[in-house]
Amino acid sequence: MKYILTVFAGIAGVVNALATPDLGGRGAPPSYSGAPGGSAWDLKKFSSLVIFGDSYSDDSRLGYFISNGTPPVGWINPPNNKSADGGYIWGEYVVRYARVNLYNYAVSGAVCSNNITPRYFSAIEADFPSLAQYEVPAYVADSKFVKPDGEAFIEGSEEERVYAFWDGTNDLGYYAFVQDEQVPGTDLTTYTDCMYNQISRVYANGGRYFVLFNIAPLDKAPIYAAPPYDVGANQYWPDKPKNHTLLNGRMIQEVATVNAIFKYRTPYAVEIKRRFPGAKVAVFDVHGLMLDIYNYPSDYLNGSAPLDVSGYANHCNTTGGDCVANPSPDSFLWWDELHPSEQTERVIAKTFVDVVKGASKWATYWG
């Protein structure tokens, strides 16, 4: 931890001059741009979205793995109205709001790399597919695939395509960092290195517009929450340890650490090291956005039941069966112990569209 804090101090000192003061207001981050004159994000047209991530973003890809094995090159990932949030994921709402093409490579259960936090999944008799070992290579293969009619599988040009990276929920979570079950010799900086390495791989394949989501407020999710909002053994973590206060404290530290790295390392990598020449990178503060929902639910949630940001809508037993869902899921921040509700994901989708317009208070822009 001392090493990590030293890294923060060094990076913070280098990029401090690039930041503007906090403008305040409901805990929202300041609205500023990383480039002189506010020109850090110059996307003229948004026509395609490519997503890498986990169950917060997965449509149907893990389901295909379970039923059929690895999807073939050129597989079309269908929308799923029974995804991990109980409905459609945020990417499907971006399609509706912005009328773009979606290429979704997110896989439920994914981590950045199985060389850091591997998690075995008996239904596929292997570790969950990760960004490094599966998702990014799958996209690269698809980007070179030509359909039988002679058209490219991935439509449009790089000038109109945005790549979204939202990972970390599993890397930081149970059976991983929060329980010290990462591969020996790895730490949170190994994880963040992995995330920037995946951006580098997509950049090397031609990508130029990137949105890096920071980590959601996992310490507020019921599965990691402190008493009295905590849950015990559950469908995701049937052998959850009993010291929930300790787990909550660990998660608070992990989320804060990774988000600080993303905040300071991104401008360092883009503006100083020039790691991605010609690229534009936005850091989407989804953590701050979800905390705003937590603190001001009436501004975001719209169900008919009393608004609830500490409980969750869908209750199942420890094997994932006997589920009982609240008839008003849009009243909840959380769908279940771990996943945001569909209404939360609608809010995230609307905000994401603002982010790619280049003027969102929930993003910082670099490049």
3D architecture notes:
The protein has helices at residues 2-15, 61-68, 90-98, 131-143, 188-204, 244-272, 286-295, 342-357; strands spanning 32-33, 48-53, 101-104, 120-121, 126-127, 161-166, 209-213, 280-284, 314-315, 324-325, 363-366. The chain is α/β, with parallel strands linked by helices and 367 residues long. It has a single domain (46-366), classed as SGNH hydrolase (Rossmann fold, 3-Layer(aba) Sandwich). The strands form three sheets. It has a seven-stranded mixed β-sheet, with helices on both faces. The protein is globular, with a radius of gyration of 20 Å. Mean pLDDT is 91; it is low at 1-38.
Brief sketch in words of this structure:
It contains eight helices and eleven strands. By secondary structure, the protein is α/β, with parallel strands linked by helices. The chain has one domain: SGNH hydrolase (Rossmann fold, 3-Layer(aba) Sandwich).
What's the helix and strand layout?
Layout (H helix, E strand, L loop, with lengths): L1 H14 L16 E2 L14 E6 L7 H8 L21 H9 L2 E4 L15 E2 L4 E2 L3 H13 L17 E6 L21 H17 L4 E5 L30 H29 L7 E5 L1 H10 L18 E2 L8 E2 L16 H16 L5 E4 L1
Parallel strand pairs: 1-11, 2-3, 2-6, 6-7, 7-8
Antiparallel strand pairs: 4-5, 8-11, 9-10
Helix pairs in contact: 1-6, 3-8, 4-5
Q: Which outline best applies? A: globular
The CATH topology annotation reads as Rossmann fold
The total tally of domains equals 1
Q: How do the helices and strands follow one another from N- to C-terminus?
A: HEEHHEEEHEHEHEHEEHE
CATH architectural type: 3-Layer(aba) Sandwich
What is the CATH C level class, in words? Answer: Alpha Beta
What is the overall pLDDT average? 91
CATH superfamily (homologous) name: SGNH hydrolase
**Span from first to last CA?**
30 Å
Count of DSSP E strands?
A: 11
Q: In what order do the strands lie side by side in the largest sheet?
A: 1-11-8-7-6-2-3
- How would a textbook summarize the main sheet? 7 strands, mixed
